[in-house]
Amino acid sequence: xxxxxxxxxxxxxxxxxxxxxxxxxxRRTNRPEASAEEEGERVERKQRPFKDYEQAFFLAAALGIIxxxxxxIEGDKEQLLRTEFLKNDDNYKPMRQLIRSKYDVKDxxxxxxxxxxxxxxxxxxxxxxxxxxxxxxxxxxxxRVE
Amino acid sequence: MRLTKLEMKNxxxxxxxxxVSFDSVKGKNVWIxxxxxxxxxxxxxxxxxxxxxxxxxxxGEKIRRPTSKDAWDLVYGTNIDQGIPPDPYMHxxxxxxxxxxxxxxxxxxxxxxxxxxxxxxxxxxxxxxxxDFEVKINGRINDSPKEAIEAILPVAxxxxxxxxxxxIRKMSLKHGEDVQQAIELxxxxxxxxxxIAHLATVGKQISRELDEERAKAGDMAQYLDAKxxxxxxxxxxxxxxxxxxxxLEAKREDLENVxxxxxxxxxxxxxxxxxxxQRQQLNQVEEDRENHLAKYDVLISELPSRLILPELQxxxxxxxxxxxxxxxxxxxxxxLRGMQMLAARVLKLDTCICGNKITGVEKTHLEAERRHYEDxxxxxxxxxxxxxxxxxxxxxxxxGLSASKLDFAQYKKELDxxxxxxxxxxxxxxxxxxxxxxxxxxxxxQLQADRTGFQEEIARRQxxxxxxxxxxxxxxxxMDRVERNILRVDRSSRVKQNLERQFSLxxxxxxxxxxxxxxxxxxxxxxxxxEATRIFRKLTNKPEEYDRIQVDEYYDVAVVxxxxxxxxxxxxxxxxxxIVALSFILGLMxxxxxxxxxxxxxxxxxLDDAHYxxxxxxxxxxxxxxxxxxxxxxxxxxxxxxxxxxxxxxxQVWQATRDxxxxxxxxxxxxLLAPISKVVPK
Lengths: 146, 682
Hints:
The structure holds 2 protein chains of 2 kinds. By secondary structure, chain A is mainly α. Chain A has one domain. Chain A contains 7 helices and 2 strands; from the N terminus they run βαααβαααα. Chain A has a two-stranded antiparallel ribbon. In chain A, helix 1 packs across helix 6, helix 3 packs across helix 6 and helix 5 crosses helix 6. The longest helix of chain A has 26 residues. Chain B has a domain of 297 residues: P-loop containing nucleotide triphosphate hydrolases (Rossmann fold, 3-Layer(aba) Sandwich). Chain B has 16 helices and 15 strands. The longest helix of chain B is centred in the C-terminal third of the chain and has 102 residues. Chain B starts with a strand and ends in a 12-residue tail after the last strand. Classes of the chains: A mainly alpha, B alpha/beta. At the A-B interface, helix 3, helix 5 and helix 7 of A face helix 8, helix 10 and helix 11 of B.
């Protein structure tokens, strides 16, 4: 394990607002359900569009990347999920390569920071859409690249 | 019955065989056996009685069974010479001629009583001797000798046919009960009394058996109680079986009705089946949709990479340009290196590859070229860019992402197709449901539920009926056992009824015996009174003074005089009293209605002349056969006093004598004697 890798944060922190959005859009959370539901919006859990935080996080990050928009994590932060959940996801590798190549980032910690910032933007976009349509049209999102 | 012959062997004082013949001669019916005291004349009398009855009954004596002691006393006990050892080989035989009232011809009777199987040739006590008794009638042995003799001359009557003079004296002193006893002997009252006693014993026995049977009747009550309980239980089970069977029938009818209704809804059933299929298909498609939607999550998960793929491709394009450039640089370096190496190699050669010799100029030129290449190689190598290490990773990632097509369109198309199918099935179901009608569905479901319920109920009832039948069978087994016991007890009950009847009969018989005995005795008393008076009138010496003999209700024998006054026997003289007694005994003999030899042993002791003459003259008329056993004195008196008429009846005279040397008695037949006045004394 290199010293650079050891600098990777163990837990991804997001803004409290973003966290509420993640919670309201994910069917399965990494937190106790009661508190999650108290803080999240009252939506029937099984109707939520994302199965978990990492699914929502990567799509949000991807949207931020393709939009070229990111947001700094400011104010109060919430623990979203452990980094290892992200690293084990199939989306992590291409997204890391892209960020490292495109934004000339050499440090994985920075990669994750960027990823989180892009996601901070992307989750708002997703949440806004969901707020408007009570659903997320993934087909439409997909059509943006096809 | 007439005695025709007597045979004695070793009986009493007699040694060896002694025969006495009583041959019948017309008009002669009196036999005399006389002798001095101890000559053995009375043993003839005893021999007749012992042979007939096994013992020596005397008037008024109670009837009993003979014992070996009787034989012992008769044979040995009275032996004159006690010093002579008794001879066990002894017998007495009697021959009779009997004319039964009911038969035209007479019967020949042979009676023998003897000692047999002596334990010792010199027996010392009665237990060492045994007596055998045999009766032959017309030469044939009778199986019941005792009964045969009893039928001809009962032992009770015998006492009044064969008696000792001493018995007359005893009878003359007897009163009341003794007289009654004598009369009852004639009546065979003892048999009556024995019968009564026997009936009493039988009654007691029956009563005991009845008690036992009554005790068994207690068991009957238990069995009957058990039977009733089993009957109730069986009835209850039977009722329950019937009820269950009725219920079964009802449920079967219900089931048939339900089946009929279901058959009538066969169309609906078809629709129901169709509906069921459609629902299954819908479920299947919905399951497909669920599975397809699961792919949706995969698509969503892959979507981020797909979204950034264009960006990544752009990065790769840049990396490709750089990579291409580096490749070109590497190629140029390789070319320069090759050119340099070729120039250097050629310089080392003298001839060209075409065979021409390389000149100096040419070598200089080649050297210059080699240096040029070398310089250019150095420049190229110095200018060679560093390869981006992520190039291959990105290229691989892009290649991978590009290879797998994220076909949302295909997914959507498939999802749409599934949704269409779902809609189709839903519509079809709606249509089917509409066709079926909600009420029919409910009804069919209800009928099917009812059918299942009925089937379960029928199975339950059948199981219960089966169980009840088992219980019924068990109860029947119990009932069989109880009924067997009841039959057993019932048989016992019938036995009880029989016993009760027997007891009742025994009581009646006993009562009848008791009630008959007294009047019968009374009648017999009157008959005896008449017969005794008839004899008394012949014997008495005061025929003008004494009228008759009376036996009163207390069985006291008295004489009634011509004035009708009762003369108590105590007021009569001894001789008169004995005449009354003799009259009474002979009256009893006549009243017995039997015919037998009259055997009188020493009975003229107390008679005066008048009485003696009367008796002697009347004796031949008292019985059809008379045997007189007399002492020598009596015999002398008889010869002096008897009339010619008496001697006319005399058949045979025997004299008993005693041989003092041989210590044995013998009987000697003598001539028919004339009255003593005509006899020449020896």
